[in-house]
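To assess whether the prediction recovers the assembly geometry, we first specified each molecular entity separately, as shown.
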Amino acid sequence: MTSKIKNFPGTPLSESDFTEGKVLSIHDEMRPQFAWDTGIGIGSYLAALKEGYLLGSHCKTCEKTVIPPRTVCEWCFDPMDSYVRLEDTGTINTFSLCYVTWDVQRITEPELPAVIEIDGASPLHGILHKLGEVKPEDIHIGMKVQAVWKPAEEREGAITDILYFKPIKEAGS
Amino acid sequence: MSERVAVIGVGWSGYRPVSPELSYKELMYEAAVKAYADAGVDPRTEVDSFVSVAEDFIEGTSIFDEYVPDQLGAALKPVHTIPGDGLHGLATGVMLVKTGQAHVVAVEAHSKASNVLSLPEITAYAQDPVLNRPLKLNSEFIAGLEMHRYMHETGTSLEQCAAVAVKNKRNALNNPLAAYGANWILDDALNGPQLAWPLIKSQASDHADGAIVVVLASETRAKVLSDRPVWVLGAGWCNGAPSLESREWGTVPYITKAADMAYRQAGIDNPKEAIKFAEVDDTYAYKELMHLEALGLCGRGEAGSLTEEGMTKTDGKLPVNASGGSLGMGHLLDASGMSRALEVVLQLRGNAGDRQLAEVDIGLAQSWRGVPTTSGAVVILAN
Amino acid sequence: MGMRKVAVVGAGMTRFVRRALETPKELAWQATRMALNSCEMTLDDIDAVCMGTAPDAFDSVHMKGEYLSDGAGAWGKPYMRSYVGGGTGVFAPIQGWYHVASGMFDTCLVVCEEKMSSYFPHAQAAFNTIFDHTTERALLPNLLWIFALEMNRYMNAYGISKEDIARVAVKNKRNAADHPCALLGDPDITVDDVLNSELLAWPVNRLDVSPVSDGAVTIVLAAEEVAKRITDKPIWIQGVGWSLDTAYWANRDLAYPTYVEYAARMAYEMAGVKEPRKEINIVEPYDPFDYKECHHLEGLQLADKGGAPQLVADGVTLRTGNMPVCPSGGLLGVGNPIAAAGLMKVAELFWQLRGEAGARQVPGQPKRGLAQAWGDLMQVGTVVIMGTEPGGEVAR
Ligand SMILES: [Zn+2]
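The predicted structure of the complete assembly is given in tokenized form:
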């Protein structure tokens, strides 16, 4: 049927249609506000961050240690009530060099997001964070890294209590 | 594909004005664990499909279905969300079972209303962005417009609306799930600050937190899994005019259409005779009256006087909102309809404790998605 | 008791444009009117309406499904919106399928609409709120991150190069040059053009990415008896599948989309497809980024793990190849108004299987096609299998 149709609906506009006032529009900004209850699992995680360490939880059935901690294991649906203090070191699972901010501003020094598998958690169990104190070209998958924390008095129980993860000098190097 | 569908398990968490001890995931988990235990099913191996109802701006998360599977035991399973009321979710579960491709389906609805600090702001963004929102009116003006027109067309009085609030607040005192029970007299529901005249704050429900999970099964599976299935005889839903400029203000024809759809499936010709009790939306007291009329459970303009005469009390001919309704239990946002389906199930099973109705075998639950929508659903359940 | 058979009997779509004059309601109406006209039906013939549209944040319209309802033809009808993020465009037809297959409705509209240009200054910022509000959002994550992180992991796991992946963008943008609704069709684009385009988030360059767009697509579904009255060329929904993985995306290996595999296996089983590589004649996998097409072909069991780029390099996935992939031009070429883009793939199968795709027509009278979408935090797979015969009992 598409082969028979010549004119499809939909009218493209250009930037100048707006700047020259050919098309009228309304600007408005929504300001929703939330205060999310952190509950038991994530509440414990944030409390640990404030104290300066990473917390996971362990499923006895699956024999898995996960991060962040949660009250139910998503794989066996048993409750997870054993919490485990983890290392603040880990291994880069994957990373990017991002030249665009979240609100689409171009930047020349890239942001360095990474998934970091945390030591003490089960393999492939990591968290999203950023890298720092490293040249972008030196980053590689498998690199060992360690959390750089805010000073204790500035920590507030948030993921940003870790500033970033930096490379650990590998033994012998 | 024409197999009957049953409710074989229900679970809930709540309801309360705040729930700071639990995250939304933990709230959902509590309801889910109870529902699966009630149904006697393991979600990891025995539930074929999962449905959750949620709206992004209420959750404060875009693409909320991302955060649904884990606490429902649904990781790596067929899961989807319906941005609708809990009864829309229930109807979805019914359809999934009726395809013959899913035999057991779990449906979840929740409210973390206490976490939404700017609910009026969010509701304002449900108004038409060009035609209505720039007027910067609190969305409850829409309820005021509707209530006024309804009272004008039917002769319903403010006292009759107040009688709804008194009844539901008192009913809630017998419901341990209810957050806002009170031993009110008529004056309590006639006084207090105005919201949008003629709507008074005391005739509008307050919000509560809670979660409900319902497990549905095909007839074949229900007979194996459950010794007291509650059957879904009918499920109907409908949308009216979304725009304020083209809707009927004194009636809610979309509720009538939703009900007709459900009655047709249930083979009900005369709902006044067939329906033994009802749980209908009472976000605002006048809505209970409007909805009873739209559902065909009483004549047009009669609901107010019948309420005053006690027909809808727990010992009346047609008990309405024995649970306490949204006025008594607290408004659970899009979980509201699900809380009503839960009540109907508990009543039909004889598990409603102090508020148990005598000899009920068929009940109706109805929902409305609140201002500014014209969206509602109806479910009919029976032993 | 056999399953009730469901067919697609009509389809319509708007042009996919960077910024449309039309409002969201008007886009939905235009696609819907065109779909109804295509099968000579009116709204009176329609029993129910299903809506697919992705984050409300794009339009800042709360309860966007309710807002769109009249544009989608739902006034006075049973109407619901389903939602699985980016997977929505292929989920909405699944929703339509269960409406009809349940026996509750004989006909159903499936409408997908997206207007991303309303978000100012750029729709991408709306995606910040898809991340966990407590454990991730404070890092100010960017939608590009998850694609870049996944692409890097995929490339690293199988030793795949950026050139290998850029060929997908070239193929799809060239295919789109034949699509009358396409935003980014380009018959002359080369691999070098893709590799030399602006670096956004290594390893992702600008031309690896589909454009934000406005647009709408509608299809009409009907039960067997009704479908046969409406058209002598119904296209049957043979199988559907969907699967949603854990939200803890940093707790699993991003190199392989297990959820796509689960969704595909569900759909293959329902369709009676035992050897997908032989039995699927056309594939429309989700391609918001070029590597995703490869990733998804592997999840769909249509390529070995890490093997999809070789199929692309060998020309197997060209429109004239043994397994044409994204003959429409895909999201990379036609455009990516999220939910509408997914349903565009289903509409493309409808046109291709009826032999009505014009310059895009795949040769050899294809009998069966598969459309797939993906979304959330690299988490959901949605799959629809369609064919010229009703169901699992197709002769092979
Ligand atoms: Zn476990």
